[in-house]
């Protein structure tokens, strides 16, 4: 086979990796020969702002199943060519394990070693779940991809076809934290203790949090995704040198992927492990640190929808929230700016409205953090929780929230 895209045919159900597993070679081939994607149904996990692939744009008759909303998926849904599944990470795991075997599964791999073993590099989230039952297994062997340690590797003998080609890896640049996000991170850091096990993903607040934690010691990381902040913590001596850094995906620049390959504690495994509530719950002092669109005065969390628009999906938040509740001395922290739209919209709201989605129920959250402080919620009464949340809202929004809560309280 000369091209990866030669494995495609009309009507094929195809799984393609997203995130840092995305193959630039496959994308280039499809752009050069769009007919290869005619009537092909792609399944891929993509997060908005991460990745270059738009499989719906390749051909007007291609289709896609998605687990996260992106601009391309939104347009595809309007055209009747895309479907968005309402699943969190454990739900995605179950879906992929129980789905009809894919006709084709693509994977990007490192060059083989002397025994023919290849590594998937910094992306092991979903491919292992569909690999064994795939009807055809096709690999892009990319010499730029460095080997990583983990639970999944592929021998060339398993492949139905492969194409070796040097291609750029997907690189991810974090946004620079704002002053408000730096304050959020500083507050959140006060809730972390030496030797805690942390889950935090990608984005500007996690980047700021990593900087705020550089003076800590013996920290551990167990997370679905990691980015440059983990390297900062490692180089600052904040991480336990004897503990695994467990993750499914690493995202960053090329030199970060080199660091991940060279750093022995990194262990990559699939989403059935990184988001296994029971396994995570067995980790004492597991601290899940996540963001949200808004939090209401009952402490219900909307992590998915703003003004009626679905932004992404539930992702790993529900699993990490459950695990943090079950972990001995574990905690769930929700971090968000107090306002949106240049201060005109409060993200601490009275109640979740009809244009919101309840990603987490009110009993899940231990603490909510904004740039204005920390609302410690565990053990508080309903009224005390509302008061604590109002106190970390933007000062100009607090009178309206207090009045609204008085009306709600009168009807409880």
Describe this protein's structure.
The chain is α/β, with parallel strands linked by helices and 412 residues long. The protein has 14 helices and 26 strands. The protein folds into two domains: 4-164, Glutaconate Coenzyme A-transferase; 179-411, Acetyl-CoA hydrolase/transferase C-terminal domain (Glutaconate Coenzyme A-transferase), CATH 3.40.1080. The protein has an eight-stranded mixed sheet with strand order 15-13-11-10-16-21-25-26, sandwiched between helices. A seven-stranded parallel sheet has the order 4-3-2-1-5-7-9. It has a three-stranded mixed sheet with strand order 18-17-24, with helices on one face. A hairpin with a 2-residue loop joins strand 19 (305-306) and strand 20. Helix 6 packs across helix 7 (204-212), helix 7 (204-212) runs parallel beside helix 8 (228-235) and helix 13 packs antiparallel against helix 14.
Present the secondary structure layout.
Blueprint: E1 13-15, H1 24-32, E2 41-44, H2 55-58, E3 63-66, H3 71-78, E4 82-84, H4 89-98, E5 104-109, E6 117-118, H5 127-131, E7 137-141, E8 154-155, E9 161-164, H6 179-189, E10 197-199, H7 204-212, E11 220-222, E12 225-226, H8 228-235, E13 245-247, E14 249-250, H9 254-262, E15 266-268, H10 271-274, H11 277-281, E16 286-291, E17 294-296, E18 301-302, E19 305-306, E20 309-310, H12 317-326, E21 331-335, E22 339-340, E23 345-346, E24 348-349, E25 367-370, E26 373-376, H13 382-391, H14 398-411
Parallel strand pairs: 1-2, 1-5, 2-3, 3-4, 5-7, 7-9, 10-11, 10-16, 11-13, 12-14, 13-15, 16-21, 17-24, 21-25
Antiparallel strand pairs: 6-8, 17-18, 19-20, 22-23, 25-26
Helix pairs in contact: 6-7, 7-8, 13-14
């Amino acid at each position: 086979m000369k091209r990866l895209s030669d494995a495609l045919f009309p009507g094929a159900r195809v799984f393609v990796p997203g995130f840092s597993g995305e193959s630039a070679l496959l994308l280039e081939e499809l752009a050069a020969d769009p007919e290869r994607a005619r009537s092909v149904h792609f399944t891929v996990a993509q997060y908005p702002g991460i990745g270059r692939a738009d499989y719906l744009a390749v051909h007007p008759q291609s289709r896609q199943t998605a687990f996260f909303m992106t601009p391309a998926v939104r347009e595809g849904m309007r055209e009747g060519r895309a479907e968005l599944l309402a699943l969190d990470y454990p739900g995605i795991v179950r879906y992929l394990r129980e789905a009809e075997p894919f006709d084709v599964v693509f994977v990007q791999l490192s060059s083989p070693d002397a025994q023919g073993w290849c590594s998937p590099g910094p992306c092991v989230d979903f491919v292992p779940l569909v690999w064994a039952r795939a009807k055809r297994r096709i690999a892009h062997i990319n010499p730029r991809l460095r080997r990583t340690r983990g639970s999944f590797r592929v021998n060339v003998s398993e492949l139905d076809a492969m194409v070796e080609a040097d291609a750029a890896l997907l690189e991810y640049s974090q946004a620079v934290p704002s002053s408000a996000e730096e304050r959020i991170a500083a507050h959140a850091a006060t809730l972390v203790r030496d030797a805690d096990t942390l889950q935090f993903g990608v984005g500007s607040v996690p980047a700021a949090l990593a900087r705020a934690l550089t003076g800590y010691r013996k920290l551990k990381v167990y997370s679905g995704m990691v980015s440059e902040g983990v390297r900062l913590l490692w180089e600052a001596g904040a991480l336990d040198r004897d503990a695994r850094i467990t993750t499914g995906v690493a995202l960053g620049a090329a030199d970060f992927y080199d660091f991940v390959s060279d750093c022995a504690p990194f262990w990559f495994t699939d989403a059935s492990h990184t988001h296994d509530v029971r396994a995570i719950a067995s980790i004492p002092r597991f601290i899940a640190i996540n963001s949200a669109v808004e939090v209401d005065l009952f402490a219900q969390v909307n992590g998915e929808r703003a003004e009626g628009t679905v932004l992404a999906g539930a992702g790993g938040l529900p699993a990490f929230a459950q695990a943090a509740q079950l972990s001995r001395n574990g905690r769930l922290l929700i971090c968000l700016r107090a306002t949106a739209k240049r201060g005109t919209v409060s993200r601490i709201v009275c109640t979740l409205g009809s244009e919101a989605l309840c990603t987490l129920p009110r009993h899940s959250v231990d603490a909510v953090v904004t740039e204005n402080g920390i609302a410690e919620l565990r053990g508080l009464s309903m009224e005390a929780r509302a008061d604590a949340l109002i106190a970390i809202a933007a000062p100009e929004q607090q009178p309206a929230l207090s009045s609204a809560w008085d009306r709600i309280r009168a009807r409880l």
